Amino acid sequence: MDAIGTNLGMLAVAVAEIVCAAALVAWARRRDAAAEGASPSALTRGERVVVAIVGGGALVAIPLSVYSLLASAVWFASAPVLRVDDLPLGGSTAPGFLESATAVPAAGYDTAWIEVADLPAGPRWLLWAEAALPMALALVLAVGIASLALALLRGAPFARTLPVALGGAAIVVVAAGLGTQVFGAIARGQIISSLGPPELITSHDDGSGVAEGFIFALSLDLSPIGWGLGIALLSAVFAIGTRMQHDTKGLV
């Protein structure tokens, strides 16, 4: 996409955000007016605008996330040549231009990128899963944020569906965070295997006893589990608040 198309796309997103935020503010004001003072909103005008802006952004992000998921699936399925980044590389030696640098005692390459033509379907879909899981996470979070914003504008922040949405978001955070790493590692391992036998894709031993070549590597970052547990705790807090709100008939 050229610069003009990119700028037009960003402008369209900004306009959609403004329209959604304005629509949410107008909806909240009409709802308060229809209540005739029976249940006044707990939000001030400024708070209502802020919540509407955040909720409008989440509503805009939902279709964008869906489009990104579908567009990436079409791309990975049909692209004749795919660039694969972060292929683990073992046995690499120092770059030649550093040989005369006395301040660099050791150097090497950890990863490399390649462009692969006619990639089999298995690695293609694994690479798509690696890219799609963060998009799915963004979609789930956007739905949760939009639901919370609408609940706040309705004057019922402890809606019954909110703990369920947060619990689902916690599961997706863990699944996306770990799944992206696992799918990516498996995809790169299959790609390395599809390139040919080791003797064709590995450099010859230069006498040091080490040959440079691609390797399979998986190093899991477990931080998504912590994020998921934190969101799950927040879901429990909202579940308790929902029960208290029901027991006190909206006094919470």
UniProtKB/TrEMBL annotation:
The keyword Transmembrane applies. Keywords: Membrane, Transmembrane, Transmembrane helix. It comes from the Bacteria. The chain crosses the membrane at residues 6-28, 49-77, 131-153, 165-187, 225-242. This is Uncharacterized protein.
